[in-house]
# Entry
Amino acid sequence: MGERKVLNKYYPPDFDPELLPRNKRPRDKQILVRIMLPMSIRCTMCGEFMRMGKKFNAKSEIVQDEDYLGIRIHRFFIKCVNCSGQITFKTDPKNTDYVTEHGCTRNFEHWKEKVVDEDAAE
# Structure
């Protein structure tokens, strides 16, 4: 029972940590993440509206050969809740926003239009 609570382990004198197998992950591997939608979108296949803040289990990957001032761009893959069609969007660090790529269209956001008008006025 007491051996479970030991904080340090015994390593023999001939132990070589370089011989341990390491799992190398490929650079273009997709990882599973839990994400909330950063914008309201509409599926182009079935017309289902999905609001900003809806939670999804998504696959994330780093876009190869594309970055902005050294900042990596991530692409996210989700499925529509109604028709299970694939939807993709990616980060846009230049505008601190997201860009829809495939399977959906972005809904109009009136608050974003006001910000663009204020920037144009200045």
About this structure: Residues 28 and 64 are 7 Å apart (CA to CA). The first strand starts at residue 31 and ends at 36. The helical segments are 110-121.
